[in-house]
Design brief:
A: 3 helices, B: mainly alpha, Arc Repressor Mutant, subunit A
């Protein structure tokens, strides 16, 4: 019983110390909030910021689409070239890719089973 | 126009609605960033980056939380990412310089520099940010967890450990001051 009381007193003492620290933090942050001046630019500034960001997003989208199109065209062209000009290489490549995918899936599956 | 209407218009691509939303929330955002970066210049820079990101992601805003809460979520993650990528962990000397500037700023306005602020500034971001969000802005552990992609238990322990560190720092500072006062009086 005495032990429990002592523990409770200790706990209350700890809580009080934490409360004091929290109060000091709050006071400090409140001082920052009130003292550091923040200049808010006019509406025009924010409109320009939005317009610039939208332009940047548009440019990024065009760039990504262009890269995607060029890469897709390159892949399709090389596959078609191989199929019509060197069919043996095309079929060897098909086989190699299939074997690679199967081996990779098997290894991943075995690792997953071992892990669990 | 109310905030909800502005958000709807902004989602439709209305630049003026976006600008009004940003203008209304700019002081709140910058003041939050000052508290977590302890650097007014970095805070303004980050606020602009946050707004740019917001234009990009406005389609993802579901309106469940307040727009200001969504803004500080983006700002917090942007700040953490930047620190991680650029390894902007400032040396103690640089950090001290920032504090000195803030201290000078406050004292020039006849405000007292609070030792708890120095202690807060010395904490790691992962502790400082949840403390500011919890004890200044009053967010719950769950809300902070969602903002920082952490479990509420982790947030709770970081807040607790952070406050304990600050308390230790304040105690240490208090002891040093009383020791110095003792030395002066014995002379």
């Amino acid at each position: 019983m005495v032990n429990r009381k002592a523990l409770q007193l200790e706990q209350d003492h700890q809580d009080e110390k934490l409360f004091t620290a929290v109060k000091e933090i709050e006071d400090g942050l409140e001082t920052l909030e009130e003292t550091i001046p923040v200049y808010t630019p006019d509406l025009q500034f924010f409109e320009n910021l939005v317009a610039e960001q939208k332009q940047a997003m548009k440019r990024k989208l065009i760039k990504e689409l262009a890269i995607f199109t060029v890469a897709a065209l390159l892949i399709v062209t090389s596959v078609l070239f191989m199929l019509y000009q060197v069919p043996s290489v095309f079929f060897i490549l098909q086989g190699a890719v299939t074997i690679f995918i199967m081996a990779y899936s098997t290894v991943s599956f075995v690792k997953q089973v071992d892990g669990t | 126009m109310e905030e909800k209407d502005l958000i709807v218009s902004a989602k439709r691509g209305d630049q003026l609605a976006f600008a009004m939303l940003f203008k209304n929330n700019y002081p709140f955002l910058v003041k939050y960033l000052i508290k977590i970066t302890m650097n007014p210049d970095a805070a303004e820079e980050l606020a602009q980056e946050t707004m740019a990101k917001c234009v990009e992601k406005i389609g993802l805003f579901n309106g469940k939380s307040k727009f200001s809460s969504w803004l500080i979520t983006i700002a917090t993650n942007l700040y953490i990412d930047q620190k991680r990528k650029l390894k902007r962990e400032k040396s103690w000397k640089a950090q001290e310089e920032v504090f000195r500037r803030m201290q000078w700023h406050l004292e020039s306005r006849n405000e007292e520099w609070n030792d708890a602020l120095s202690a807060l500034g010395k904490l790691k971001d992962e502790m400082r940010i949840p403390i500011v969000l919890k004890h200044y802005y009053g967010y719950s552990y769950e809300e902070i967890g969602k903002m920082m992609n952490l479990s509420s238990g982790t947030v709770k322990s970081r807040v607790h450990n952070g406050i304990m560190s600050i308390r230790e720092e304040l105690k240490l500072h208090g002891e040093q001051e009383s020791a110095a006062a003792g030395t002066r009086s014995s002379r």
